[in-house]
């Protein structure tokens, strides 16, 4: 069968595209996913179904090998190898992530427009943010009430003592009380929006696919590892896949690559689209020399801080380990809300943890092939802190985190974080080395197939996801972001898929 649309990857973008494009009964859709499929909420394994457990270690994401690509990467030259979990399951990372449901801010989209992507205004983005969402708490002009993804916040009565201390301390230090983190003007401290009603991780598999699986024009094939995109001349015509150990070729009039910011550039390069000199190193014939494929890796570096708790931490079933977040602008920074600090309460080892995130980094990294074997993971180099201002702003944020826990309002910890003392915290060079050694990721990798204007050497796709140099092939996922947004990326990727679904329907 020759499908109208073949979508590679059933994650935060791919599931949305399949649902929206199959609304036209005259269009046939094939959705393939490398991981397993669970066709109802009740069928989900508990670790996928539920966003946290009362004895949670503080990490709300799933790392189990069965549903995780198991990637590793290098954060800096000084750091050890870090884990890079990505969802390998229907729903992709939306089925395994920590469920923070924060939107990008207007300045992010103004920057996208400045790169020549004039349909990506904040006004357009807001339309699709509202379309995808049912906000269970806030009803106003900025929020949706009929969308497939359910969003909520923990009420103060549900907060842990650690969350309360963090909030009170931030307020005492002069930060704004942010009632709605997703308001476009929001800044300060407040409850983090989550897509997890009743602890259920409300993935795109649940929100977009579960109710439409009986559509006759939609075919979903799980355990299908895409090995190569097939072309006739410069026209994408199909995909070679390994389905549960047997090779198949699926043909389609249009191919949409939604494999994520790691696998999408990898699959493009394996298919002959990428830097020709790099492809030549692995004996891959160049179909189209696209130097930016795999470049411009953008992400949010995270510096983890840990304190032993003075008072007992005993999480209840309704208490997530993480509930409250601080967003603010670093001193002298031109980027609003470039710092993100989240607090967690961990009952398993009675610790208080903070993730200090730089949510507008200047440094960028890369994805490179490790082999021409489609089962070999690519080389992931984040290249964090290669820019001095990234170091300076993160140093300030780490010191602020220590100030927050040292205030009179924060009664559950005292002293310096584990592995740190005043000689490190107060010395710029010592703190730089400590951060470069301990940094890891907030798991918001993006930008590796950047969208921008035709003819620009740093652009891989146009603003509708169409891949330059070939026909009938698009990329729609976090990889096409020109830069990582100042937010957790899941809500924005879903929004992008909603918008590009309409673009495709409208002939763009």
Compile the SSE list and pairings.
Blueprint: E1 2-8, H1 14-21, E2 29-32, H2 46-49, E3 71-74, E4 81-84, H3 106-114, H4 122-132, E5 133-135, E6 149-151, H5 161-172, E7 188-191, H6 204-209, E8 218-221, E9 224-232, E10 235-243, E11 246-257, H7 260-270, E12 273-274, H8 276-280, E13 288-289, E14 301-308, E15 322-328, E16 339-346, E17 351-358, E18 366-368, E19 379-381, H9 388-406, H10 422-425, H11 428-438, E20 440-441, E21 473-475, H12 490-505
Helix pairs in contact: 1-12, 4-12, 9-11
Descriptive overview:
- The structure is a single chain.
- With 508 residues, this protein is an alpha/beta fold.
- Among the domains are: 2-45 and 203-297 and 446-505, FAD/NAD(P)-binding domain, CATH 3.50.50.60; 155-191 and 301-360 and 385-438, Cholesterol Oxidase, domain 2 (2-Layer Sandwich).
- The chain is 23% helix and 21% strand.
- The strands form six sheets. Strands 1, 2, 8, 9, 10, 11 and 21 form a seven-stranded mixed β-sheet that branches. A six-stranded antiparallel β-sheet has the order 7-15-16-17-14-20. Strands 3-4 form a two-stranded antiparallel sheet.
- Helix 1 (14-21) runs parallel beside helix 12 (490-505).
- The longest helix has 19 residues, at 388-406.
- The protein is globular.
- The two termini are 25 Å apart.
- The model has no long low-confidence stretch (mean pLDDT 96).
